[in-house]
Automatic annotation (TrEMBL):
Entry keyword set: Copper, Signal
CopC domain ranges (all copies): 31-123
GO MF annotations, alphabetized: copper ion binding
Pfam families in the cross-refs: CopC
InterPro entries per the UniProt record, alphabetical: CopC_dom, Cu-Rt/internalin_Ig-like, Ig_E-set
One CC-aspect GO term: periplasmic space
GO biological process, one term: response to copper ion
Entry protein name: CopC domain-containing protein
Gene3D superfamilies in alphabetical order: 2.60.40.1220
Transmembrane segments: none
């Protein structure tokens, strides 16, 4: 009986292996670092955002939106490549941020695979 259970588990793992490895190796970008940082509280309002990923990203196929705690959009420029760092994007903010919580919503394409995510940071009073 135990042998059958073990054999069943092995067959399930073999069947699921292609699905699991496809997600790992298809090249989706993961946000490694951000300035301001994920969940960070900053004393001075940032003039720009810097997003750093684990793979090179295509700036022309990328988008970054910023919203305040009321959900109002904050003016932001288009994502720009950082010279010599194809895995980083810079987004200039159109105005000084007031104290509060801000949400950054990003989407990029890396190695032909789209990725997206959301993070927050706070500007202290």
């Amino acid at each position: 009986m135990r042998r059958r259970v073990k054999l069943f588990v092995v067959w399930i793992l073999i069947a699921l292996w292609p699905t699991a490895t496809k997600a790992l190796f298809r090249g989706q970008a993961i946000l490694n670092r951000a300035v301001p940082g994920v969940g960070a509280t900053v004393g001075l309002p940032p003039a720009e955002l810097l997003l750093s990923f684990n793979h090179d990203v295509a700036p022309a196929l990328s988008g970054v939106g910023v919203a305040d705690s009321n959900g109002r959009s904050v003016p932001a420029g288009q994502p720009e490549p950082v010279a010599g760092r194809a895995y980083e994007l810079r987004v200039r903010l159109g105005r000084a941020l007031k104290p509060g919580v801000y949400t950054v919503d990003w989407s990029v394409v890396s190695r032909g695979a789209p990725s997206s995510g959301v993070y927050r940071f706070t500007v202290a009073p």
